[in-house]
Amino acid sequence: MSHGPHFIRRSIAAIAAAVVVIPLGLSMGMGAAVASTAVPSVAAEVALVDVISQGRPVSASSEESSELPAGAVVDNVPTTRWASEEGVAPQWITIDLGTGASVSKVVLQWEEAFASKYRVELSADGATWTTLATVSAGDGATDEHANLTGTGRYLRVYGTERGTQWGYSLWSVEVYGTPGDTAPTDPETGTTVNVSTAAQLSDALADAEPGQTITLSEGTYRGSFVATQPGTAEQPITLTGPRSAVLINEASSGSLSGCPRPTSGWNSGYGLWLFEASHWNVNGVTIADSKKGIVLDAATHVSIDGVLVRDIAEEGVHFRRSSADGVIRNSEIMRTGLVKAGYGEGLYLGSSKSNFNCYADSSGFDRSDRVQVLDNDFGPGIAAEHIDIKEGTHDGIVRGNTFDGQGLSGENSADSWIDAKGNDYLIEGNTGSFAAPGTFANGYETHNLLEGFGCGNVWKNNDSDLGGVGDYAIRVSSTSKCASNPNTVYDSNTVTNANSGLTNVAVTPSGETPGDIDPVEEAPSANETLVTSISQLQTAIDSADAGDTIVLEDGTYSVSSSAPISVAGGGSAGNPVTIKAETVGGVTLTGSASFVFDEAHDIKIEGFVLTQSTKLEVPADSRAITFSRDEFVFAQSAEHNLMIRADDSVVEYSWFHGKNTIGVYLGIEGAGSTEMATGVRVHHNYFSDQNFTGANGGESIRLGVSPRALSVAGAIIEYNLFENANGDPEAISVKSSGNTIRYNTIRNSFGGIVLRHGNDNTVVGNRIIDGSKGIRIYGNDHAIINNYIAGIDDEAIVVGSGTLRDHYEGEPSDSRRTNDAPDRIRIALNTLVNNGDGIAGETNRTVPPLDVTIVDNIIQGATGSLADVPLMQDFYWRGNILWGSASDGNIPKAGYSRSNPQLAQDAAGTWRPGSTSPAIDAANQTNHDDWVTDDIDGRARSGTFDVGSHEVTTAAATRAPLTTADVGPEAG
Length: 972
Prior knowledge:
It is a single chain. This protein is mainly β. Among the domains are: about 10-180, Sandwich (Jelly Rolls); about 680-690 and about 700-705 and about 715-970. The protein has six helices and 81 strands.
């Protein structure tokens, strides 16, 4: 972060010469003024208060680089400074002044990356903070906070809003007053345990006693960290450290019998686990790169303060097994659900009723009651609800939090900031927003999964920006189910950019209590209307309300481009307007057109046979359009069949077939020329019999085009079957970023999967069988994992070369169309059998692939080369098993073993390792579960993974090669 010339900060001596005597005995200076410095009298100079911050220990929420460290603010070197990570708020920097320090004045010298809003805070324990000064209109000048009176150990500058596009940067933080003790001890027991290694941390947790403080040095701590010793109300146990103390539990391992509890030989994968460890304080640290973040089981009265939880496979923080009376405050939770999106809640209070057998107490419920959630930042990148309040819990408080909904996945109904299934929660003073990518229905929702629950919750003073996507800020699922204990929405709540409004229930005026008004009755049941002509169909569509179903009588109907079926407006999230055939496949629409969409939303088109001669397009001004159980058999004059440009659209259980001309079956693009629709899902469809003979332009699915390559679409293409997809070398062509291609089967097809343009795509669990093309890779940060490729004519996986390295915003169109050499690619746990070649590269472009990891794959064959990439730069090969009469290629010797994986074909023709295969428990890397936790068949992987796409186990498979019985209009 270089911001040009800067002013040189004053020396400490110069500052000291301008300090005025601070009278003692003042009360704590809440919101002290920022003053300019006056020249003092000689008498005042004699009575100066010392600078107490110089050389003291410093920690920070982040550092932009090692050249801009936190310690620079107290080093008295005028040319050094601290800078936080760019573009992120909030951020903080903390100085340890020693126990019992008194503070009278703080001087902050900002660099150009300043805070427009921030607080100066003081704490005795790093957990509970008192505000000394608040700034709401910072200008980047030197800020002098005088007339302060406070005592504590930690002085923190907490930036809440950036004044520039950068981060936060300070040349100096100068604190005046009286220094504290340099070797603080716990006042009750005198015990502070300082740890700097993972082993020391594990021992300290195991041996913890009431009143102890376990203090972490900065650094990374890898392992399984479990606390089972409780503190007491009078003497809690404290685990504290800077944000740069990072706890990581990279992989769950071993086996567990029964419900989760600390068990020898089993690693939970939890970053920090408090098991029956009540009365703990957890302060300041980071939990990252773990299966779950922080988990509390039967741990009451726990305080979590100022922590960062990030990059978690499942949920971030979980109060479970009646972990009541806790608090989480001043913390950040982001990027959860990286492996299991539908289980990636930011904060989880209680347990699902399906898990009461493990986590309920004698009441029959998980009573993780009275948990307070205060002043935290949730998101972006939280894949499930930011807070999931489970059925059976009561009386919590959710106040002062910020919710950034970008990245909500929509899986497992994850489409809101809060899902309130418990009772009598106060949800107050929170701020929520949403922006693509992601799936977003409403800001806050209630649900009634248990009789009598999902009731009595109160919303006050919440501000909601639904981004033009969400329907209601607060959607109450039922009033009749909560008639005796209604949910209450006060008029102090506000909403902007909503499709429907503030709430779907009556609003309570501020000052009234819920009992002052009558509950609103639920909306009447939706209508179903049978129509027998296109004109009747149009009339019914024009007058439809949310939840209505319009049924067109079976038959054949002609629709022209001059008089198409017009769809405008629509339903609401969870209550679409459904337009369907009387029976699936019973209505055929002929002619030049069918449906035309104009600012439509929440529409479902179901059961039609579409034969039109022009492209069917869903424009970007629409949203949430679903095609379900439809048959697309367009006339050859239609260049493309279906083009989706609308966010949150779905194509499911449909059949695309019979195309012999240029154009795609299904295209996904977006608004303008560079944007992509976000949140599109394509699943359980059948793509067959595509026979265009041109060189290209006949993809079955095309996810973007080159000008849209850097747009993050977040699409999910899963459980689709491709047979005789012969229109292009790319059955699935990806030309955008941030997509997931998983669990598809491509059989007897010329086309494969090609990451042609774009970055950060995941290709996992796909099967390509008995065709011509495999997987080809260009662009950056892709993961190719758990795939099975067998019996194809050409290379199984091609690591391409490029014309350039890295596309960029604003580049010329001719440049954007060229291939970007792959960078930071992971190719792991794939099985490649009897293909023309195994893993290959290219020589037709000159820029080599860079930083590619190829590990723990099975590559077997009798022709060509098993692993030969002519252009390589910084490749990492390890743990691969090669077998067969094909040549090894140029894979380095350290990257593989020549051993028979004992592959044999099962009844479905799939090659699998035998029970004594050397692939069993042989994976070289231990962090595969950052990407996957099961094999291609859905069988759980644990411990050391098996090499290749299949785990050798007796467990039942949950996925298999797809057949026509699994996909298309008649499946499911």
